[in-house]
UniProtKB/TrEMBL annotation, chain B:
The keyword Transmembrane helix applies. This is ABC transporter permease. Signal peptide: none annotated. InterPro entries: MetI-like, MetI-like_sf. One of its GO terms (biological process) is transmembrane transport. The keyword Cell inner membrane does not apply. GO terms for cellular component: plasma membrane. It is found in: Cell membrane. Keywords: Cell membrane, Membrane, Transmembrane, Transmembrane helix, Transport. SUPFAM superfamilies: MetI-like. It is a multi-pass membrane protein.
Amino acid sequence: MHVSAFKIFFQTGAWLVIAFLVLPILVVLPISFTDTSYIGLPKEGLSLQHYANYFTDPDWLNATWTSVWVGLVVATCASVLGTAFAIGCWFLSDRAAMVARWILITPILVPPVVQSLGFYRFWVKLGLIDTHVGVILAHTLLALPYVSISVFAALSNLDRNLPRAARSLGASVMQTVWAVVVPAARPGIATGFIFAFIVSFDEIVGVLFITVRNVQTLPKMIWEGIQDNIDPTIAAVATLLIVLTLIATAIGVLRRT
Amino acid sequence: MPRVNEKVSYWMLVLPALAIMVCFYILPVLGIWEIAFTEPETGVGNFVKMAGSNAVKTSFVITFRVAAITTVGCLILGYIVAYAISNFATRLTPLMVALVILPFWVSVLIRSFSWIVLLGRSGLVNDALMHAELIERPLRLMHNELGVLIAMIHVMLPFAVLPMLTNMRGISGVYVQAARSLGASEWTSFRQVYFPQTMPGVLSGALLVFVLSLGFFVTPALLGGGRVLMISEYITYQIQEFLNWGLGSALSVVLLVATALVLLIAARFVNLRATLLERK
């Protein structure tokens, strides 16, 4: 079979670009097993010392735990608020609802540093600087757009006659929402929950502005580690996170097929 | 009147999220405008100082240049991937899609860290080149615009690929087939028939990448090493090093206005609703 130059160009090009996307991320893997105390490839042999360091250092472990529980609280708050919001807007479907939807996605468009300045000044007034509540509130705001977008996407396939039928059969508005609309929105809510968790789990700029010593998150530890001394523990943490991402993606792909 | 009542209950669902967004997000961001015009004294002093500063001018030029080059780079690389995924169905296509989406889920911080490991003075790339005796002294691949650009394109690429993929999935193959059967070569039918149909996806991707790049902080700050001061980093510099809230806020206002202008101009060519509100 004749394969044209056109096809060869796009096929090899695509694989080269994918290599550029994926391979650089994987360099942390060999680095994490280095037997040296600086960032570099293993010299004499492989070593697990940097993993041991991660799993025994209370600072790293506390920061990880904080990021996980803050992320779960944020994902829960953002999912509840964002789902209610998207369902309300879906029913209204008027100009005002459209404006509301645009307002809710502004955190996607405002540069991170600018919104963090705003948070900082406001959180000082509210006494929320360096508190977990302050971080949860900020992250919930940043996560809301993603929940609202994914729930709305799930609802775009819902037949508007279904809630109408429920209403005409005597269900109240809240009963209709709960029994008819929420089940249809469920895939969107699940996606939104995952997005919200990741937004919070990875967020760095806001945390740098609104926390000092009391609240330590994983991204903050990594950031400070990169700034101060380049310690291979970061490579071990990065490898663990990448492996977790790989497993989660694989599960996602397998469940879909 | 049942209809009015009904509307009220839908608004009850909308209001909690909307209220906290307005109180704790929109108001604080507007608060920055207030600071810009009132600190250290009321007036436009901060903006006058800013307009006269060469450092600010340089920073804006760098910001727009980096954002523009990142956008072009992401569009070219992203187009090739999106095209191959959408047009050549092989057994490996699902793998390709998974590999494109995967970096999306890896934190920007970790991806930037990987590039530091690769591009640093004694990083893996320099090590390998020295080892192979291709170079005598380490190349400067980082702490300059080159390093920032490489890492920025890497971080932003998925944002360009995804809208293009969504767009290309909706393009029917019959037009290219028609062009081919009428005698057009593969390249001609691509250029004249296929490519124009992909413009909405290309523009969506361009807008996303450009707007996100304008305000990006993490990657330029880590890979630039203080030598490639984009506006976001310049703002944090003013505030954290010099406690100059007035100038920092004035710069933030200009960055916000610049972002809004880009969106307004883009609205003429791009379907903003499809790009931002109804993203899949």
